[in-house]
């Protein structure tokens, strides 16, 4: 009868890496531009499309928030001893929100 060979690698990985708190903050806060978009749509609907200044301010705030979360996410993703999934996800979401808001402004400037 053969003895079972003890496996030395059981696909366990023990590491000292932790989630970064600023990276988690950036991930959670990267949804703010989306919330601001829905708020801008509701303001525009309630004022029958006559809320240019308010929507412009909301859009600028959303772009600033997207830039801030992108900057924090990239900074945290570059650190060592940090699990990179959370800040990278925050960075990707921030890029999508930033692209969406810039598209809204470009469409507004073009008058489409």
From TrEMBL:
The keyword Membrane applies. It comes from Eubacterium plexicaudatum ASF492. This is Calcium:proton exchanger. Pfam families: DUF6142. The chain crosses the membrane at residues 21-41, 53-74, 86-110. It comes from the Bacteria. Keywords: Membrane, Transmembrane, Transmembrane helix.
């Amino acid at each position: 009868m053969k003895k079972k060979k003890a496996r030395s690698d059981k696909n366990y990985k023990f590491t000292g890496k932790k989630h970064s708190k600023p990276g988690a903050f950036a991930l959670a806060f990267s949804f703010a531009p989306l919330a601001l978009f829905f708020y801008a749509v509701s303001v525009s609907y309630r004022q029958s499309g006559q809320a240019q200044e308010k929507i412009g301010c909301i859009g600028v705030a959303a772009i600033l928030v997207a830039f801030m979360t992108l900057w924090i996410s990239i900074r945290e993703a570059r650190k060592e001893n940090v699990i990179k999934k959370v800040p990278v996800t925050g960075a990707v979401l921030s890029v999508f929100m930033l692209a969406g808001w810039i598209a809204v402004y470009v469409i507004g400037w073009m008058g489409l």
